[in-house]
């Protein structure tokens, strides 16, 4: 992964992760909407721990991709990025259970 994140200011990092308090991140929306190209772009700038974070709605980006049936994004998150498949959402369900 690139180190582009180190060149961003703290404000830019915060906006990338959570644009406004209470809103899901840009990464979450790209996963939810099945935008593979944008997901790959964002992965290069997001720290690993943010790939697994619970968004304000109580789900992770993996939950969103699985729920939406976006198989390629699920594969990227699990096989290429090593996202946590066992992380429950606010309803106690894993991404597998949301699929």
Explain what you see.
The protein has 99 residues and is an all-alpha fold. It has a single domain (4-98), classed as Ankyrin repeat-containing domain (Serine Threonine Protein Phosphatase 5, Tetratricopeptide repeat), CATH 1.25.40. It is built from seven helices and no strands. The protein has helices at residues 10-17, 26-33, 36-43, 48-51, 61-67, 71-80, 95-98. Helix 2 (26-33) runs antiparallel to helix 3 (36-43) and helix 2 runs parallel beside helix 5. The longest helix has 10 residues, at 71-80. The protein is globular. Residues 1-5 have low confidence and may be disordered.
Key traits:
7 helices; Serine Threonine Protein Phosphatase 5, Tetratricopeptide repeat; 99 residues; mainly alpha; disordered N terminus; single chain
Q: Helix proportion of residues, in percent?
A: 40-55%
Average predicted local confidence, pLDDT: 85
Distance between the termini: 28 Å
**Overall outline:** globular
CATH topology: Serine Threonine Protein Phosphatase 5, Tetratricopeptide repeat
Taken as a percent bin, the fraction of beta residues is under 5%
Question: How are the SSEs placed, and which strands pair?
Answer:
Elements: H1 10-17, H2 26-33, H3 36-43, H4 48-51, H5 61-67, H6 71-80, H7 95-98
Helix pairs in contact: 2-3, 2-5
Task: Provide a quick synopsis of the model.
This protein has helices at residues 10-17, 26-33, 36-43, 48-51, 61-67, 71-80, 95-98. The chain has 7 helices and no strands. Pfam families: Ank_2.
